[in-house]
Write a structure and sequence with these properties.
By secondary structure, the chain is mainly beta. It has a 22-stranded antiparallel barrel. The longest helix has 19 residues, at 2-20. 35% of the residues are buried.
């Protein structure tokens, strides 16, 4: 304490001297036309390195070590640069309005294949809050996105299946860096859900095709989750749910914030109250923890770090297809970490660095078969964005992805064991230009390069997109590109000599209106598949790839309409998708409609806020036509079709207060009508000497699901 007594006056003198020789300017930057705040504006002293960047609210503060007069420059992509003469040696408040450049004023945005959720995205069709408030989503990002066109319902899977692609063909990233295992482990006939809570993110970019050259290793779609910035208030969150509970705490400091959370889930009490089709030995039980750190620098640079871990398991008995039962036991855990750093290295160039690491450990037991799988996956990425002039922006960079796979198998009756281990490294580079010839015409050509150490392939992927404005709020977009993806690890363990698979996308789209009032969107597409893997299933019902002789196509159209003005306090949207798709891949003997494809999919989502009782009511109707399936022993492959699927979901959210703390009581019902939906049929190949076909009928584990949660926020 004595040391501190002597030190503090000295620090005060030093601060006083420093302030005497400084000029301090602060204020806020807004759009001159709309009045909206402009975050990320470069603010610097002309001819020097002194500068800063406006914050999320558009405000800034800058100390300049001089008493002389100087010129302060405001520079922002898509806006005319602004210069202000500043008198030195004073403290001044300077609020400025920036005007969009003539080439950017009401400029079109390339929207082909892209659905964005975020206030900053002009092409947005969903908002972040929609993830939570869409009936039937139960707070799952993937479930909410399935109400958009281009996706398959797949209630027995839970993952995203997009425009003819299976679940492995969608790549998920957090802040632009790989999230290698975004879903909990998948067991036969039961859906899984995403690992990440929607509250972690401020925006979602979901592309159903024709995406940027920045993104690789995805044949069908890309989902990019954009995390929150620095928190502005300390908060304690308590969640009490019918399936478990969560606790989270946020601490806020000077230009930084730290958040930590934990959750525990146990379905046993709930399953004891409802009729369940699953013969449970051990009900689903899981726990997770997460840590989230954000720091903003003096010049607007931002550092993000996220880490999460979970562990859980379940054990149940299911049909083996021959009248008996087989026990499935699934235990496993996952660790994921992600770190990114964004900073401006010049007044026109933004640098983004990122890295992620995933460790996944799964122990699966099916009857006499036991399989332990471990994977280590990491990615490092560099990206630079340079605004060369008002009409031309260049984005380029590269990434290094490393994956390690290790699996051990043991047959418990015979004690036979088998193991496999392999690694792969993928190096990539990309470059893309966005050229705005005029305000109503934007062109985005790009090229991507990838090299795989396992297959020793070198791949070049050309891509291009175009947008043309027609009227005040109407845009026509086109996109084309080549996309490659390595074969998933579960297949590579049997044959590591197969090559990357390829798809080629063609998309034409039209969007008109405004998300704040009424929006309509339509797209037609054609996708061609080449080099798909083909092979056979072994005695353990696992696929063994033999070669890349598979091929296929997917073509169709998507419609989306959203309206917020027809009925007061009511928001609704309608999406419809038609797809015609055939493939010859896996063990398919001929090109047919894949067993995960429904030709017709319809979603109707509505939300209404009842002001007097502070309650939001939401409903979702989902319908899709039946999926094809094969009866083992039939002469014709995939000759049968399952029944149509239909489900109505309902939720109610009531806003109230508990001991003065903001509280939401949320109640959600799935399959409100109690319809006995058949999700599909799982085929079991005929064993030697068997004559009768083996099929397992797939239904939801519970016909109806009710979720009750109380969410309390303590400031």
């Amino acid at each position: 304490m004595q040391f501190r007594t002597y030190l503090m006056p000295l620090i005060g003198v030093m601060i006083g001297v420093n302030l005497f020789s400084q000029t301090t300017i602060n204020g806020c930057v807004t759009d001159k036309r709309t009045g909206e705040a402009l975050p990320g504006v470069n603010i610097y002293v002309k001819g020097s390195y002194d500068g800063t960047i406006s914050g999320p609210d558009g405000c800034y503060s800058l100390d300049v070590n001089t008493e002389d007069d100087f010129i302060l420059v405001f520079s922002f992509i898509g806006y005319e640069s602004l210069e202000q003469n500043i008198e030195g040696g004073i403290e001044k408040t300077l609020n400025v309005e920036m005007k969009e450049s003539s080439t950017n004023l009401r400029a079109v945005t390339i929207t082909a294949g892209s659905f964005e959720a975020g206030d900053k995205k002009r092409a947005a069709v969903m908002e972040p809050l929609d993830i939570y408030t869409t009936a039937g989503s139960l707070g799952d990002i993937g479930a909410a996105l399935k109400t958009l066109p281009g996706t398959q319902v797949a209630p027995d899977d839970g993952r995203l299946l997009v425009r003819g692609g299976d679940a492995s063909e969608t790549r998920v990233l957090m802040d632009g860096v790989l999230a290698a295992k975004p879903y909990y482990s998948k067991v036969p006939d039961l859906p899984t859900r995403g690992r990440f809570a929607p509250s972690l993110f401020e925006g979602t970019f979901f592309s159903t095709g024709g995406y940027s050259a920045e993104f690789g290793q995805a044949l069908s779609s890309v989902l990019v989750l954009e995390s929150q910035g620095v928190a502005v208030e300390e908060l304690t969150s308590i969640s009490l749910m019918s399936i478990g509970g969560e606790l989270a705490q946020t601490w806020v400091g000077n230009n930084h914030s730290l958040a930590a959370g934990a959750g525990y889930y146990n379905f046993a009490p709930y399953n004891a109250l409802v009729k369940n089709r699953i013969d449970w030995d051990d009900h689903v039980e899981a726990g997770n923890v997460n840590l989230n750190f954000r720091r903003k620098g003096d010049k607007g640079d931002i550092l993000r770090f996220f880490a999460a871990g979970d562990y859980g398991g379940q054990s149940f008995r299911t049909s083996d297809g021959s009248g008996g039962q087989i026990k499935i036991d699934d235990q496993g855990g996952n660790i994921y970490s992600n770190s990114t750093y964004h900073t401006s290295i010049t007044d026109k160039t933004l640098l983004k660095l990122g890295a992620s690491f995933t460790y996944d450990d799964q122990d699966m037991e099916a009857g006499i078969h036991r399989q332990t799988t471990r994977e280590w996956i990491s990615e490092s990425k560099l990206k630079l964005i340079t605004q060369l002039n008002n009409s031309l922006k260049l984005t380029w960079g590269g990434a290094w992805q490393s994956s390690k796979f290790d699996e051990k198998y043991r047959q418990q009756e015979t004690e036979n064991t088998w193991g496999t281990h392999f690694t792969d490294h993928i190096a990539s580079a990309f470059a893309e230009a966005e050229w705005r010839l005029i305000s109503k015409l934007a062109f985005r050509p790009g090229i991507r390069y990838e090299y795989s150490s396992r297959s020793e392939e070198q791949i070049w992927s050309p891509r291009a997109a175009l947008a043309i404005g027609a009227g005040e709020n109407t845009t026509f977009s086109m996109a084309w590109g080549h996309f490659y993806q390595t074969v998933q690890s579960d297949f590579l363990k049997y044959n590591r000599n197969v090559e990357m698979q390829k798809s080629e996308h063609f998309i034409l789209g039209m969007q008109t209106g405004d998300l704040s009032t009424r929006l309509f969107r339509a797209e037609v597409y054609h996708k061609k598949y080449d080099n798909l893997i083909a092979g056979e299933y072994n005695e353990f019902a696992e696929f063994v790839p033999l070669d890349n002789s598979g091929e296929g196509y997917a073509k169709g159209f998507d419609l989306f309409f959203r309206d917020k003005v027809l009925y007061k306090n009511t928001d609704y949207w309608i999406s419809y998708s038609y797809i015609d798709s055939e493939r010859r891949f896996l063990d398919y003997p001929e090109k047919v409609v894949p067993e995960f494809i429904s030709p017709h999919t319809l979603n109707v989502v509505a939300k209404h806020f009842i002001v007097p009782i502070r309650t939001q009511v939401g409903a979702t109707w989902t319908w899709n036509s039946g999926r094809p399936y094969h009866v083992p022993g039939d002469d014709e492959f995939m000759a049968h079709t399952s029944p149509n699927y239909s489900e109505i979901g309902l939720n109610l959210s009531y806003l109230t207060s508990i001991l003065g703390n903001y509280t939401i009581v949320h109640l959600s019902f799935s399959n409100l009508t109690g319809r006995d939906n058949v999700l599909g049929y799982r085929r079991i190949p005929l064993a030697s000497g068997e004559q009768e076909p083996s099929l397992v009928t797939i239904r939801s584990d519970v016909k109806q699901f009710m979720f009750l949660g109380v969410f309390i926020s303590i400031n």
